Amino acid sequence: MPPSNQHVSTRLTGVSALLHFLVDGLCICCLYLTTVGKMDIVTTYVTYNVLAFLTQPLTGWWADWMKQKHWMLLGSVLLLTLGVAACQLSTINDLFIMPTAVLLGIGNSLFHVWGGKQVAVNTGNDIRALGVFVSTGAFGLAVGGVLASWSLLYVFLLSICVLAIQTLPSQKTLPSPSLQGGSSISINEKTSEQGNHPLPVGRVRGGSIILLLLIMLVVAGRSFTGEAFTTGITKDAMLILLLGATSMAGKMAGGWLTKSMGIWRALLFMVVGAILCFLGKDLHIAVMLTGLFLINCTMPVTLYWANTLLKGHEGLAFGLLAAALIPGYLLAT
Prior knowledge:
By secondary structure, the chain is mainly alpha-helical.
């Protein structure tokens, strides 16, 4: 990748990661303000999560076929803005509670597949960039939930609008390496040689489907384990922020660990370390946090593999893994 393009793609990754923090923070903040003091909040949160996560395979498929992908980002910002407006109206009339969840859920879904697609394609599926993008949402959820207020909500929304506008020019000037012959930044030679051949458009081989299903199973298991690490712990505001920061640090560090150690050594280190920490998580909070860090380190690895299997369909790959999070989360909770 030429230096100028690398600079633009690095900037796009950074801005997308910041947007991820803001979007997830806005959604949880908005939901909290909508449901605070209400009796039946389960339906609202279930509706939001179903639309935000389980629709991502569909919105991801759409992202792969859209030629002007900036419209997906703008559509997400519009829906989030309408969601904030509905949230404000819900303080007057409860009829606006469900529209708030629907607008936020769809807006969130559109943003995530847009960001996942853009970062994967424009960095050549760089595992470090993938980790940076996916990491910030966890901390955004923690901040938005703990510090929820109308002032914070409007700061989030204004920041999202400004950053989205600034991001548009880079999408129009940056070529797509994975679609124009650019090579993926490999983890090691074996991965680079065997994992970066594009699949025929509209057709995925049977072996690739099996591998993809296995990756989704791993993602569901990781989601379950991540929740299980903190089961039974009383979570005050500071601990919630600490858990969010730990998850973010793990996802961000995973790409760099894999790049420096090699994919299999890094995975062995992460998985064995996480298992040992899970067995001793009741000994001290530091052990629990270390395990949570290590389990989150695997996040960019599974996304990298999914993008490799579905090269040219990175939006769908991102959406499928996002949907796989829900079964593990439900089992753990």
